[in-house]
Design brief:
alpha+beta, 11-stranded antiparallel beta sheet
């Protein structure tokens, strides 16, 4: 076989293999699922901060609750960002700061920030979402029946290859994210090749008496530092 033809075949094989590895259909990770979750949990607990995005496309009709959240979380613990909330009066994007055990929100049609109880909006204290006992790490720690899935594209603009893991989580853990959670939840996690939890999907009953729904989390910018102070 001519050398040029052989080189072409080899190059084609390498490219095809790389594309398949990056687009699902199998997993390149040989990490035990429990170990992968423990590593992801530890990286969350150890980071100085990160950027969080929480979204849903299926908030049930008639629910007063959280439709989205985005902002910076730090290990102070503190949060600076906004919550998308749906109330009887409509849907609003509410600037929020949480620091020193208090949550401040800039309520629509009122001047400045006001101290609020986030439970009134079906939300947690967002500053606690990085903590080991009352945040996302606690959800990972409580996940059972873990199984490894395929590699998928994910992260910001789907630029990363993530190993997926599925499992089940009780409401007592998921309530760290949405206080009204009840029953068991199915979870899918996407983990980077260096062990960071990049994304998570949780499906179940978040609001009493309402149908099951899904919240999606995206966690980026590990190692972020930000001095967040009360308004």
């Amino acid at each position: 076989m001519p050398l040029r033809r052989l080189a072409t075949l080899l190059l084609t094989g390498l490219l095809t293999g790389g594309l398949l590895a990056g687009c699902g259909g199998g997993s390149s990770s040989d990490v035990d699922p429990a170990t992968a979750m423990k590593t992801a949990q530890q990286k969350l607990e150890d980071t100085s901060g990160l950027t969080l995005s929480l979204t849903t496309d299926d908030l049930p009709d008639g629910v007063q609750g959280v439709s989205s959240a985005s902002g910076t979380l730090t290990d102070a613990p503190a949060f600076d960002g906004s919550l998308g909330v749906t109330l009887s009066a409509g849907s609003f994007s509410v600037p929020v700061k949480a620091v020193d055990g208090k949550v401040y929100a800039q309520i629509p049609l009122t001047p400045g920030f006001t101290t609020v109880d986030p439970a009134d909006y079906g939300a947690p204290d967002p500053a606690q979402l990085l903590t080991a006992d009352a945040g996302i790490p606690a959800i990972l720690a409580a996940t059972t029946d873990l199984e490894q899935g395929d590699d998928v594209r994910g992260g910001v603009d789907n630029k990363e290859v993530l190993t997926t893991y599925t499992g089940s989580v009780s409401a007592s853990a998921v309530s760290h994210l949405i206080p009204g959670a009840s029953g068991d939840f199915s979870a899918t996690y996407g983990v980077t090749d260096d062990g960071e939890l990049r994304q998570a999907s949780l499906t179940g009953v978040f609001y009493p008496g309402k149908p099951a729904m899904t919240y999606d989390l995206l966690l980026t910018d590990y190692g972020t530092s930000k001095d967040i102070t009360a308004p």
